[in-house]
Structures are given as C-alpha cells and as structure tokens.
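Lecture 7 notes: from sequence to structure.

We start with a single chain of 171 residues. Read the sequence below before looking at the structure.
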Amino acid sequence: YAKKILNLRQWDAVDAPVSPADRGSLLHGLFERFIAAKDHQKPDAARRFMALADEMKQERPGGEALLTFWRARLEAIADWLAANEQTRAAHVTESHVELTGSLRLDLKSGPFTITAKADRIDALADGGFEIIDYKTGQAPSGKKVKNHESPQLTLEAAILRGGGFATPKGV
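Now the structure, written as tokens:
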C-alpha cells in the first residue's frame, strides 16, 4: 500500500556510501553555478571553482564525504576547466545554463512535442552555438551516437535550430 498508493520509498541509510547519482548531482550543480556566475571567465577560475565546491558540499547528500574523497580529482577538473574556458573565451560570446526547450512536430499521426533541458549552450562569435552536456558517468560511444541510439545532443540541436530554447537568439 505504502509503495503503490502513497508512492513512498525506503530512505537510504545515513551511513550509506555516496552514490553515482549524488556525485552527478553535485558536479552538475557545481558546473551550473560556476558558469552562471561567469566565474569561468575570471583569471582565478580554478580557485573559484574549488571555493564554490566548498560552499556547495553542505547542500547535497554526501557532499562533505564526496568533496573529501574527490578533492584531488576536483582540483584537476578545476585546472583543466579553467584552461579550457580560457582557450574557448576567444570565440564564446555568452554562456547559458540549464535551458529547457521544446519543439513541436506535426506528424501524420498528430502533433508531437520533443522537450529537453540543455546543461549548457554557448553563443559563438561567428553566430553559431555549441551545446555542452556534462557527463559524470560514461559518455555514449561513437557507435551509439552514429546509430542514433543516443540522440540527446541531436535532439537538443534540432530544438535550438527550431527556436525552441528561449534565451539563445539568432538561430
């Protein structure tokens, strides 16, 4: 009854290990805030990334344990991210995070709407866009992407091209 009708589930034990979902949530939230605050554009971007990680560790389940365990990896990510963002800065004019979009398709069988949430969309100086999806687990293989078995970015690009994301202009 509790499971089916009330939609209740058993809580994880207080001392349960940090799950991959917890790690993914923490890292996605960290990237989102880092980019939204435009910290990626600052000369001390790596330091700001780690300071933000320290702030956020209290906000997520297992954040303290995760940050302690992953600090060395997060520092490597911070250094890589800062260097990568500095390189990209020459052609990125604006970055948008966590955008929800949709595209209505009128099919013979009736209308169909595709919806998606993009982790990040960057507007480029040449008028184009780059869609970035953060993967904290294993990224799909090239074969899966080629065979359309992992269509996330393709669908997000179609929504962007169709004007379905509200913030980026110019498509």
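The CA atoms of residues 77 and 163 lie 33 Å apart. Keep this in mind for problem set 3.
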